[in-house]
């Protein structure tokens, strides 16, 4: 998996030991990836699947973060289709979603996403990974720095580190707190999907942090709220119209 958004810190790993194990690239957190698809009727009646699909549709239609990213992906030649590029599945309890680079598919953890605001944030986070996958030659599986860069961008631009979200996590800070949150969440996400030591994850994040934190595409700004995201969306549309008239 290109990414797995961790809801809680992964279990502590012994230094060096994790790197010696064969890496499954986080697929253990998404067990439904390897199961035979269930019938639509079964999923609708006996799981969270139907609710997940309804929340996803609302996010894609109304959330300014998601709408901007969908348009940016389309302009980059990577049009996103609901039934092809999103999959509601049951996941491990520590993740909310993931981007499967092998299939260019976003996995939404239907058993862990219960609120619309959570769905909005997870979809945005994973669409940033999809945007990075579309626009750049990201080596998700072998280059931890590439993964670290996309995790930094996703944490920075998706709303993961808004003041309200941090207060909900009982984390408070003043100067530089946003950067601290982005760094910490990027490290946690790497540890969730890669069998590397914490030191390796921290080193990768620190080495690319400045460049990737300051890469604000396609938003052009850090959207700290829906109002910011709406302004970014309008600016993106105006930029597109300006370019089209050149």
Automatic annotation (TrEMBL):
GO terms for biological process, alphabetical: mitochondrial protein processing; mitochondrial proton-transporting ATP synthase complex assembly
Q: Which domain of life is it from?
A: Eukaryota
Q: Name one GO cellular component term.
A: mitochondrion
What are the start and end residues of every segment in region (Disordered)? 1-23
Which Enzyme Commission number(s) are listed?
3.4.24.-
Provide this UniProt record's keywords sorted from A to Z: Hydrolase, Metal-binding, Metalloprotease, Protease
Which InterPro entries does this UniProt record tie to the protein? Peptidase_M76_ATP23
Extent of Basic and acidic residues compositional bias: 1-18
GO molecular function (one): metalloendopeptidase activity
Q: Name one Pfam family in it.
A: Peptidase_M76
In terms of PANTHER family, this protein maps to: MITOCHONDRIAL INNER MEMBRANE PROTEASE, MITOCHONDRIAL INNER MEMBRANE PROTEASE ATP23 HOMOLOG
Q: Which family does it belong to?
A: Belongs to the peptidase M76 family.
Name of the protein described by the UniProt record: Mitochondrial inner membrane protease ATP23
Q: Which organism is it from?
A: Poecile atricapillus (Black-capped chickadee)
Which gene holds the coding sequence for this protein? Atp23
């Amino acid at each position: 998996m290109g990414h797995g958004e961790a809801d809680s810190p992964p279990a502590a790993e012994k230094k060096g030991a994790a790197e010696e194990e064969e890496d499954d690239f986080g697929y253990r957190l998404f067990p439904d990836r390897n199961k035979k698809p269930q019938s639509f009727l079964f999923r609708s009646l006996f799981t969270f699947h139907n609710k997940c699909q309804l929340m996803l549709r609302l996010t894609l239609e109304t959330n300014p973060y998601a709408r901007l990213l969908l348009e940016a992906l389309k302009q980059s030649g990577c049009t996103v289709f609901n039934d092809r590029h999103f999959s509601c599945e049951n996941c491990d309890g520590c993740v909310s979603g993931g981007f499967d680079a092998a299939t260019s598919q976003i996995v939404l953890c239907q058993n862990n996403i219960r609120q619309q605001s959570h769905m909005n944030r997870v979809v945005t986070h994973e669409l940033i990974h999809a945007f990075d996958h579309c626009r750049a030659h990201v080596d998700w599986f072998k280059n931890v720095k590439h993964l670290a860069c996309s995790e930094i961008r996703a944490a920075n631009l998706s709303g993961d580190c808004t003041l309200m979200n941090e207060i909900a996590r009982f984390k408070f800070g003043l100067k530089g707190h946003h950067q601290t949150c982005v760094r910490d969440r990027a490290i946690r996400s790497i540890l969730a999907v890669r069998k590397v030591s914490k030191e390796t994850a921290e080193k990768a994040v620190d080495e690319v942090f400045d460049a990737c934190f300051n890469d604000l595409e396609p938003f052009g700004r850090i959207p700290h709220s829906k109002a910011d995201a709406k302004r970014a969306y309008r600016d993106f549309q105006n930029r597109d119209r300006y370019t089209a008239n050149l």
